[in-house]
Write a structure and sequence with these properties.
This protein is mainly α. Among the domains are: 2-172, N-utilizing Substance Protein B Homolog, Chain A (Orthogonal Bundle); 340-395; 510-583 and 593-631. Helix content is 73%, strand content 0%. The chain is extended.
Length: 680
Amino acid sequence: MDTQTRHIELVIQRLNQFNPENGNIGNFLGESAHILQTSKVKNETFLMDILAGCIEFKPLLDVVVSAFYSRDGKNCLLSERNLYIVVCYLAIFQLEELGLQEFGRIIKSMNAPKICKFLRFFFNRMNLSTWIKDEWNQIYASDYVNNWIKPLLRWQPKVQQLVVEFDDKLHRFSVATSKITKPKEFNLTIPNPRAILIPELIPHQEKTKPIPALTYKIPKLGQKLEQIKSKNRRKAEELLLEANMHQFRCAAPKFDHKNHIAMEILKPEKKFQAQKIKGKIDSIPVKLNATTILREGVLYQRKVEQELNRIEHLLRGARDPSEFLEWQKQMREKDLDQQLTEEECRRLQGKLSYEEAIVARQNCVRENQKKAEQEREMEEVMNHHCEQRQLKELKARQKNVQQVTEARKNVKQARMKLQKCKRQIAQEVSEESQEILARAFKEEEEKVRKRCELIQQIRAIEYVPSIKSKFVDLTQTPNHGVLGEMSIVELQERLALLKEAQKKAEEEKRDQITHEKYLKEQLLLGTLEQISVFREQMGRAATLKQEENKIKKPLRETIRKDKRILDLQEKIEEKSMQRKIPPGSSQNKSETFNKDAKRSWISQKRCKQEEHWRKLEESQKEHFKMLQHGFMSRELARKMAENEAMITGTSSCIVQPPHLVTKHHGNPSYGHFHRLTEGV
């Protein structure tokens, strides 16, 4: 019994080691045959048949075992799966050869209750005739399946009887459970009662401080924030209501190109009314930084240059912008026409795209129908190919069965060949290992010899006496053969010289920095003086401008009344009076006299205004000269002189440096103040 269990356990172990994906079946069977020979098994061929059969009919046996685990064997271990596969193989293929008695002995040798449970499930007539048969038909041909199931149905009552016998024996020989021993209590002496403890004095608790009232009050800052939030929310809601009320006021305006142009022509031109700019004068003195001072000076110089460039540009002959405005109007009209044509094109393009989309959809439907027909044809072809492939697979399986049967016959020859090959390999490995060991032994001997020599040398060096004290000459060079070698004394002297040179360089740098600071301060002071002069001039210019604006206000009203307009108005009045009053009346003479007086008064007023404007222009020219003297370079001054000469028609003076012109008309400082024009 023990030998049978050991043999079947060997088969189960080999099945556990088998991996169909990585290993070859022929090599695996050869290895297992060699293992069985080494273990000196008597019925070697029987065990090899079981192993080969379990591998060959694995899908057939897996159907039964997996169904057992899913239904009756839910509490069984998965590690015992190969045990049930072996029992299933014996029941299907080896039951008639073994007989019922031998089959019963094998079951007794293994775990009897578990195997009985499996056999009760497998030899159920209902299971065999229904789902097991159907599952096997999917894997193998129906003829083979019928040949396997008929003997199983024939053996079914006998196997069921055998299972019942095993169950009875197990119940009969069940060991009676012994009574549980109940331990008795120890007879111990009763302890003395515990002494009553004296209660400790409870300490007097101090009164707790009351909670301050501020902890439960909401802080004022939070209340203010909530009030602000509520106000903001109300404002937002009001704005939202207004937006909802007037949301589609400008959503889709109807734009008519021709009417728009007509309305623009009929509309009277709006009068431009400029707002007064009240300049705030900062009387507080501000401390300026160096960068701000320089920046302001550059800014004022740039302003002067811009003003000069503007005047020069006007003198060269700048055009009136009316032509440009007319051209701009025409271009806008063209743009509007283009926009309208583009909108029409877009509309037509939208219609065209809609039509194209309908045609494309129809084409897409047709293509889909064609594709569906092609797919149906492809499915039919694929089904035909699958049927042919299944037939080929069946033929290949039959060939494999024949090959396996032939391989069983040639197992002994394969074993002999394997043994010979393994012996040869073992001899070669042993020879190689001996050679490697000999080499390693020689290498270790050489290492040991070298170590001994080194130890002897070190000991000899240790025995030699060493001189501890050594005289050092600081003036002597070491003579190591390095570039720039020197003694310690020379090195110290050189270091001292370097320190002195560094100190001198630092002092020079310090002097240079102080000199640069002084120059910078002088430059800043000069720029500040220039800025102050420029600001004074700008203030004067602003005051002059304010006076001009005050004077211009009554003049603007007279300018608006043009000569032609007044003449036309007078003529209209005359015509209306002539139409209303008959000729020969005395009133006509008085009216004509009043009109002549009015015209003479207007001409006198105009003469006064022209004189006033001329005086203003002269004062501005003088002011401009002062600015030029304070800020402009020589080239800018020359440009300005040429421009004014072109305006006034006078010749410009040549600007000379101060060192060349010392005396002129009794004025020694004439070279410093260059004159722009002779006529002004």
